[in-house]
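Sequence and fold
=================
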Amino acid sequence: MGMDKGMSRVLPDRYDPARVEAFWQREWERRAAYEVREGDSRPKYYLLEMFPYPSGRIHMGHVRNYSIGDVVARFKRMRGFNVLHPMGWDAFGLPAENAAIEHNVHPAKWTAENIAYMRSQLKRMGFSYDWRRELATCDPRYYRWEQGFFLDMLERGLAYKSKAPVNWCEQCQTVLANEQVKDGRCWRCECQVTDREFDQWFFRITAYAEELLAGCDRLTGWPEKVLTMQRNWIGKSVGAEIDFPLVGREGKLTVFTTRQDTVFGATFMSLAVEHPLVGELSRGTEAESAVRDFVQRVKRQSREERATGKEGVFVGAFCRNPFTGWEMPIYAANFVLREYGSGAVMGVPCHDQRDFEFAEVFGLPKVVVVQPPGEELRAEEMQCAYEGPGRLVGSAQFSGLDSEEAKERIVAELEARGLGRRGINYRLRDWGISRQRYWGAPIPVVYCDRCGTVPVRREDLPVVLPIEEVEFSARGGSPLARLPSFVNTACPECGGPGRRETDTMDTFVESSWYFLRYTCAQASDRPLDPEAVRYWMPVDLYIGGIEHAVLHLLYARFYTKVLRDLGYCDQDEPFTNLLTQGMVIKDGAKMSKSKGNVVDPDHLIEKYGADTARLFSLFAAPPEKDLEWSDEGVEGCYRFLNRLWRSVANVQSWVAQARSQPPPAEIGHQGRDLRRLIHQTIRRVTEDIEVRLHFNTAVAAVMELLNGLNPFATVHAPSEPGLAAAVAEGLDAAVLMLSPMVPHVTAELWRALGHEEALDWQAWPKLDESALAADEVELAVQVNGRVRAKLKVSACASEREIIDLALRTDKVKTHLAGRKVKKTIVVPGRLISISA
């Protein structure tokens, strides 16, 4: 794309980032420089950073994350790709409601104002977004399609409502998914989480557990740490389900265990306090009152408190070990979780440390049934449980077998006798999506006394959040439930009185498909355009924090598979490659307002310009590492851009002419050395960005190139044949290679170097392999394994010539001391080894 006629190329003496950046941002917007369309003849590349929550202002974490993404987007465009690089807003969420209560401003107004300001900040950073595709998840034009997906999932049984124990945050007055509980605390407000039982809406993510797990093996472009976290969260366990008949009554307790080899050592049974048999078994017994009090107390405990204690109460009933016939007392125990297996655990004190400690407290019997190699355990002497494999003892016909073989034989015996079966358990639980708050996507369901739970008709979507009439208070809960104009509606089936669902969807639902909507964000008649999705998806590189490893990233994988099975797309996985960038830290801690160590990007841009902010965030550390803030580092980056500016200003009078001259028949020694440095740098920077995503070393390499250019970047063209053209080539290459990092100043310098075409449509500099050939190479000379000399030889010298030169070297002759040479080895370009 050409420049406008009459645009000045003369650089002012002083680098003024405010003027330069404002000019080029206007130019890019005027020319719609970064808008793209599918169907281009170039190969596609979809680059995406996790979209931000519109909190009000961008922070340095945003600056770093989005600068990393912008480098890759601009680099790939220069490498010949049709690059999709969109931006939008994860706009629903509790902070907007908190702001409404605290500042008396409506969430819709608060969110819109924040989006407007943050959009202006991102534009001021010069990021190459296709702003036509901008979306906000709080827009009914977005969440209407999400409500349609919900109805599809409801029809398929992938969305359902159930009473279940859930994680309750008293501060936020809402339910949390397991993934949103960190060390027993709410992921957002960090308040203690307790267990409650509610009717909740769920997505059946467990139906995809095996596919999600197997897919981890194919995500070769993801960090292994993230994949390990996902595998552990899905938590597949292979074992057995064993039935323990109740004593003196009908029924049984079914237990899932991965250690069926220890079943002969099971002496008691533990139940989660939420297990339905706890109340039933204790009813009418002397234990009833104690059990009821214990259950109520434990239900108020957090998961963290339950995990650390070893509390329990006998429920007044027994079950029978199907192999030993022992009558095993049944306890309600605080450490047993309802969602693991069946919520019942066989107690094997000698081979499970938790059971060992529980048995110690309650005086329960301990029986050794697995002996470790080379040892002989005695139950009465054990100070802790032995949890490893070994040889079975006291296990009837299975005694003498090792643990793994015994597991298989015991499962076969269970199945043959109808006492159990092979079993697979997953730690993963269905995704609870109900949230008791206002600022979220309404769940499109109506309750009718006559018809029951009725889905909203598709033609009535979206169910829009009311805006004007909503009132907020600090009472907690959703204000929707207190708004008759929203709650009261007509039943979609019978037309009689109905009540809308007042829970809204978890905001992670919105972020589970936004990357698909970006491919066709302007489509008004359907949620996804199959052709656009097929062209752009999957995302080639996704960039965001590792804190989303088992939240957003797992949900996004699940949701993509659901939409595939519903026929909306044909993608199995949404993200081919994943980069999890490190945090920005200052004074040894992550930047946060509470720590008082925040650096304001606006202030940084005002003082130094966006290019300096970008350059520092890229140069200070590789992207996967934490970046330690340094005022001196920022100053250094600013000084470097000023030096670059002056270097180009010095050559303006002659560089374009030098570039246009035909190459001389012979290029001088300095010109050849300079061209070798230029193309070594091109090779190094290309590999650093394309292969390793190490922008810090790429910038360092260009800095070294400029150091090599500076002696010749003077107001007068150098006279040596070909040297002026080499300087022009070097400055062109340096500006091109820096342009993804600092696009504004390089666009200005490119123009100043005499180019008619805009920088943002230039190709990446080409590598000239012939320029890499050296006139001379330096070789290390080893005598009997130790380096004794350095030898400069012609790059074209033969092996015989190299050996002769080495043997004539004074230092080599001294260390040979007249001895006969037995062997010589030449490693081209590196060393000569002489043995005597």
In short: The first helix runs from residue 17 to 30. Residues 1-8 have pLDDT under 50 and may be disordered. The radius of gyration is 35 Å. The first strand starts at residue 44 and ends at 49.
